[in-house]
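BUG: 3D viewer hangs when loading the predicted structure for this chain

Environment: internal workstation, default settings.
Expected: structure renders.
Actual: progress bar stalls at 90%.

Input used:
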Amino acid sequence: MDPVYCIKDAVVVSDIIDGEAIMLHRVSGDYFSTDGVGCLIWQWLSEGQSRGRILNTLNARFAASPAEIAAAVDSFLTDLLTHNLIQEVGEVVESAAEAPIEPRTNPQGELTRPVLHVYSDIRKMMLLDPIHDPAEETGWPTRKRPEEPI
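Structure tokens produced before the viewer hung:
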């Protein structure tokens, strides 16, 4: 079985700009970025690619061992899951077309492990949410969590 993940579109807004994926978690107020292999993985997740297909594609592109690539991808997926950016939506049965492939004899380069950068510096501003539902008594911005100091 091969897990398939999807981006949590209800709480995550993202875009890819000049080879960098930028994500905003609208509930936590944190934003994230990743580039290189991480950006490729984010794009493939948005296209519905399974973990196995992602591994196969990276095995064909990079000179790292399949075990090293699998460890890097799994670590990155764990980070995305931990920060509630993606969720597992099911599994696909491995077909002959998705069977593991051998690494290329002439790969494009060395694998740089994907890294998810986490930024919390504008969390409080994001949670003020001046765009939606201003309160009549206080106007806006209105804090969503009044117990949290600004």
